[in-house]
């Protein structure tokens, strides 16, 4: 019997974190460690949906800053997440973990389109579903996609695995005095403009009463600890 605290989770993986110490792209070692952790959680009987970012390949804001049309740049960012999703699914296959990629943008020869009912069915069958191409809309982020897909599939929590080990009073990369919160309410996180998630994602999770746990993608065993209901990172709650 599983002693996990959740039956269904939505895990948001930072694209940038997939680079590891590389300057660009996907670091094999990082991906296989993440896959091993997801496999462990899957074997505990937890249904896992994943939203993956694309920042290791392309970020819309960066394209727009250098003069590109913002929407065009954002579509490129969404396509970057599809590549990451395929790499992740393939790493899962090599680890004997069944996975399906569903894309919010149609590329039927490559991956399944996003169909909510089918995604839920895959989850019930014990397959990991990787949601690619974010929300399918420019001007959004994969954090918002995580809040959206998490709400749609009825996940009990959104787990944001990122470069920092929780939510801080200020950006810890800029302010060495910043203190980590153990728990924080949505109202306070939004009110204080804490930028670890974008405001749209925070607002959607708050409306849906969908808690978020922010933790470090680099800390071995952290994902399992969060899933077991142990104290790890920061819990953002209603
Ligand atoms: N109050 C805060 N607490 C924690 N991290 C913060 C905060 N404000 C800004 N950040 C920054 O948010 C980043 C994580 O968010 P983001 O860049 O969206 O990551 P991801 O690529 O995982 O989506 C961290 O690297 C951190 O520097
Ligand atoms: O619903 C979405 C999700 C993502 N993106 C684009 O895809 C890029 C990659 O996603 P994100 O920056 O969220 O990835 P991460 O920060 O997790 O690496 C973004 O910069 C956006 O340009 C988008 O336009 N709409």
From TrEMBL:
<feature type="binding site">
    <location>
        <position position="162"/>
    </location>
    <ligand>
        <name>ATP</name>
    </ligand>
</feature>
<keyword id="KW-0418">Kinase</keyword>
<protein>
    <recommendedName>
        <fullName>Uridylate kinase</fullName>
        <ecNumber>2.7.4.22</ecNumber>
    </recommendedName>
</protein>
<dbReference type="GO" id="GO:0005829">
    <property type="term" value="C:cytosol"/>
</dbReference>
<keyword id="KW-0665">Pyrimidine biosynthesis</keyword>
<dbReference type="GO" id="GO:0033862">
    <property type="term" value="F:UMP kinase activity"/>
</dbReference>
<comment type="subunit">
    <text>Homohexamer.</text>
</comment>
<keyword id="KW-0547">Nucleotide-binding</keyword>
<feature type="domain" description="Aspartate/glutamate/uridylate kinase">
    <location>
        <begin position="7"/>
        <end position="215"/>
    </location>
</feature>
<comment type="function">
    <text>Catalyzes the reversible phosphorylation of UMP to UDP.</text>
</comment>
<comment type="similarity">
    <text>Belongs to the UMP kinase family.</text>
</comment>
<feature type="binding site">
    <location>
        <begin position="12"/>
        <end position="15"/>
    </location>
    <ligand>
        <name>ATP</name>
    </ligand>
</feature>
<dbReference type="GO" id="GO:0044210">
    <property type="term" value="P:'de novo' CTP biosynthetic process"/>
</dbReference>
<keyword id="KW-0963">Cytoplasm</keyword>
<dbReference type="InterPro" id="IPR036393">
    <property type="entry name" value="AceGlu_kinase-like_sf"/>
</dbReference>
<feature type="binding site">
    <location>
        <position position="54"/>
    </location>
    <ligand>
        <name>UMP</name>
    </ligand>
</feature>
<dbReference type="InterPro" id="IPR011817">
    <property type="entry name" value="Uridylate_kinase"/>
</dbReference>
<feature type="binding site">
    <location>
        <position position="74"/>
    </location>
    <ligand>
        <name>UMP</name>
    </ligand>
</feature>
<feature type="binding site">
    <location>
        <position position="59"/>
    </location>
    <ligand>
        <name>ATP</name>
    </ligand>
</feature>
<dbReference type="InterPro" id="IPR015963">
    <property type="entry name" value="Uridylate_kinase_bac"/>
</dbReference>
<dbReference type="Pfam" id="PF00696">
    <property type="entry name" value="AA_kinase"/>
</dbReference>
<dbReference type="InterPro" id="IPR001048">
    <property type="entry name" value="Asp/Glu/Uridylate_kinase"/>
</dbReference>
<dbReference type="GO" id="GO:0005524">
    <property type="term" value="F:ATP binding"/>
</dbReference>
<comment type="pathway">
    <text>Pyrimidine metabolism; CTP biosynthesis via de novo pathway; UDP from UMP (UMPK route): step 1/1.</text>
</comment>
<feature type="binding site">
    <location>
        <begin position="135"/>
        <end position="142"/>
    </location>
    <ligand>
        <name>UMP</name>
    </ligand>
</feature>
<dbReference type="GO" id="GO:0006225">
    <property type="term" value="P:UDP biosynthetic process"/>
</dbReference>
<keyword id="KW-0808">Transferase</keyword>
<feature type="binding site">
    <location>
        <position position="55"/>
    </location>
    <ligand>
        <name>ATP</name>
    </ligand>
</feature>
<feature type="binding site">
    <location>
        <position position="168"/>
    </location>
    <ligand>
        <name>ATP</name>
    </ligand>
</feature>
<feature type="binding site">
    <location>
        <position position="171"/>
    </location>
    <ligand>
        <name>ATP</name>
    </ligand>
</feature>
<keyword id="KW-0067">ATP-binding</keyword>
């Amino acid at each position: 019997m599983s002693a996990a605290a959740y039956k269904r989770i939505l895990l948001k993986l930072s694209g940038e974190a997939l680079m590891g110490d590389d300057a660009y792209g996907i670091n094999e070692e990082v991906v296989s460690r993440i896959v091993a952790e997801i496999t462990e959680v899957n074997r505990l009987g937890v249904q896992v949906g994943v939203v993956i970012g694309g920042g290791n390949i392309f970020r819309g804001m960066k394209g727009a800053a250098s003069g590109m049309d913002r929407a065009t740049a954002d579509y490129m960012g969404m396509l970057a997440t599809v590549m990451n999703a395929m790499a992740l699914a393939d790493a899962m296959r090599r680890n004997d973990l069944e996975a399906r990629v569903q894309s919010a943008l149609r590329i039927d020869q490559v991956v399944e389109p996003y169909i909510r009912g089918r995604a839920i069915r895959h989850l019930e069958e014990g397959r990991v579903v990787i949601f690619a191409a974010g929300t399918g809309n420019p001007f959004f982020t994969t954090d918002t996609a995580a809040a959206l897909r998490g709400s749609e599939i009825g996940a009990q929590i959104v787990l944001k695995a990122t470069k920092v080990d929780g939510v801080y009073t200020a950006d810890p990369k800029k302010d060495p005095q910043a203190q980590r919160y153990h728990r924080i309410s949505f109202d306070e996180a939004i009110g204080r403009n804490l930028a670890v998630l974008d405001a749209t994602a925070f607002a959607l999770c708050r409306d849906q009463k969908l808690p978020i746990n922010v933790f470090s993608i680099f800390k071995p065993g952290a994902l399992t600890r969060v899933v077991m209901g142990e104290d790890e990172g920061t819990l953002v709650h209603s």
